[in-house]
C-alpha cells in the first residue's frame, strides 16, 4: 500500500507570485499529510511483523523482565510484542512512549475505525485528526467494545474531513456517551449503561517553559469544585492586594494557585515575615517540595538575557538564579545544600551493589535515561552496569569484567533497562557520559546529556 514518495526538489525562489506561493504551500501540506498517512500504515505493518507469537517462548518464562504481550489499542486490535516498539521509535527519532502511541493509533484506526482509516489513506482526513479520535476511543472508560467503536467510526467518518478539531472532539465525546452498551436497568440511573467520557482533568504543560520561569496549567473541574476554587483564588488575590501587592490581578491570581498548593491561606499571608514556629496553630504548614537545581560554581550557570541560569532536574529545564533566591527567602522554605560532587572523578565501589554516593554521581552526570531519545529522569531510573557484572569472577579468580565504577555505570529507566537486558540492543560508553547504542537491525545512535544523534557509520572503536 505504501509507495515511495518522490521528493519534490523544486526550490522556492523569491520571485514567486502570491498565487504561486499559496499553491506551493497547499502542495507542501498535501505532501506532509500523505507522509503522515504513510507513516501510520508503516507503523501498523511493523506491528504485523511482531505479534506476541514471535516472542511466545520468551513470554512464557517466569524470568523477571522478560518481554510480554502489550495491548496498545482497543478491544479487537492485535497485540504487539513490547520491545519492537523501541526500535521503531529510535529510527523515527521519538521516545518509546511516542512510538507506542503511534503504533496504537495505527492499529486502532485500521482495525476498529476502518472508515476513518480509509479516509486517512485516501487523503480526505489528515492523520493528526484521525489520531485524536483514536486516542479518545482507546482510552475511554469503560473500555469501548468493537460494536461501540464501529458506531463512533460511522458517526465520525461522515464529517471528519469537514469540521474543525474542537467540533470533532465534541462529536467523538458525545457519540461515545450516547452509545448504549446494554439495555439499561429501569431501576438504575438513566445514564448507567451508557459509555461516557469524563472531561475533568488537571494538566501541567511542562513541555513549554518560558525563560521567564512560567508554565501553562490547564484544568477542567466539576461545577461545584470550579466555583469553590475560583472563590479561594479570588480571596487569596484580594489578601495579597490588602497586604500591599501592586501586581496585576492576573499575576496575584496566579500566585494564589501556588499558595493553595502549599496549603497557605490569607491568614498565613498576614503572617509573612514571622517565623514558622510563631504562626497561629490553625494555619496548616506548607507542603515540603524537593527541587533539585544545579549551578556551575565557576560561571554561575549559562548566561542569558534574563541573567545567570542553572538546570532544574524536574522537567530538565533552565532555572534562573533569581528564582531560586526568591524561593529561598520564603519563610516557609526549607533549604538543603548538598555537597558538591565532582562529575569528572572516577569513583569505584567493591561488589555489585551501588552505594548512594556513587549513584548520585551517575544521576547528576546523565540527567536522564541514556537510551536514545528517552527523557525519563535519571533520579527515578535504575543504574545499570554497562558491561555486565560477573558474580562468579572473584570466586573463580578472574578479573571483574564489569566493575561497579563510574566508567561502567549508566542511568536507564526500568523499561529500557529490561530492553537492554532481554533483547539484542547493545550499548557502550565511548566517553564519560557518552553512549553509543546499536539496535537489533544495526542502527546506531550516540547519546549524551545534550540529546541523541543518529550515526549512519559509527567510527571503529577498540
Jot down its keywords:
14 helices; 4 domains; alpha+beta; 4-stranded antiparallel beta sheet; 38% helix; 462 residues
Specify the structural class: alpha+beta
- How large is the radius of gyration? 27 Å
The ordered H/E elements are HHEEHHHHHHEEHHHEEEEHEHEEEHEEEE
Strand content: 5-15%
Which overall shape is indicated by the principal axes computed on the Cα atoms? globular
Q: Report helical residue fraction.
A: 25-40%
Mean pLDDT: 79
Question: Major sheet, described briefly?
Answer: 4 strands, antiparallel
The total number of structural domains is 4
- How many angstroms does the end-to-end distance come to? 44 Å
How many alpha or pi helices? 14
